[in-house]
Amino acid sequence: MTESRTSLEALLNNVNVAEMIKISSPAEVHERVPLTDTAARTVLDGRSDLRAILQRTDRRLFVVVGPCSIHDPVAALDYARRLRQLAEEVRDTLVLVMRVYFGKPRTSVGWKGFINDPAMDDSFRIDEGIIKARELLRALAEMGLSTGSEALDPICPQYLSDLITWYAIGARTTESQTHREMAAACRRRSASRTVPTVDWMLR
Fold this sequence. Notes:
Blueprint: H1 2-12, H2 26-32, H3 37-54, E1 61-65, H4 73-89, E2 94-99, H5 126-142, E3 147-150, H6 156-160, E4 166-169, H7 177-185, E5 188-192, E6 198-202
Parallel strand pairs: 1-2, 2-3, 3-4
Antiparallel strand pairs: 4-6, 5-6
C-alpha cells in the first residue's frame, strides 16, 4: 500500500521539476557577503537624497540610468566607474542612480536573468547568482554609487534590499497582488510613472 501510494504521489507532485538544489537563507548570504559601513552609508545617503527630491525639498532631479540587465559583473563595474565620475560632475543638478536589474521578466521562454542563470548556460545556479549579485551591489555601494533594481519576485529583496536605494515594479507585475504587498511591506515613498510602473524607495 505504501509503495503504491508513493508511486501515485510521484505522478502528481513536482512532475516538471528535474532537480532541487537548496540555496542559502538570506541570513546566511548576508553573513557571507556582509554589509560594510561604507556601503551602508552610500545606501542611506542615496535614500535620503531621493526622499528629499520626492518631497521637493531638494530641487535636483534623480535619474535611474544603466544597462537593461546585468549579465557581466566586470562590465558592470567598468560602467559604474564611469557613471560615478559623471555623477560627481552633475551632482549640483542631478542625482544619478545606476540601474542594476538582475531579472528579465518573460512572457515567453528566454534567459531569466543573472540571478536565475549567472553562467547563461541553462545551469540555473540561483545559489551562485544570488551571491554574485550581492557582491556586485556591495562593490557598487562601496564605490559610492546608489543603485536601483526591479523586484520581480518576493524572495530576492530579502537577500539584496539593504544594498539597494530604489526598487521598481515593472509593467508586467503592477497588477500582481503579491507585488503590491511587497511594496506595502517596504515602508516607502512611492510614485507611478506614465507607464504602469511603480517605484519605491526603501527607508
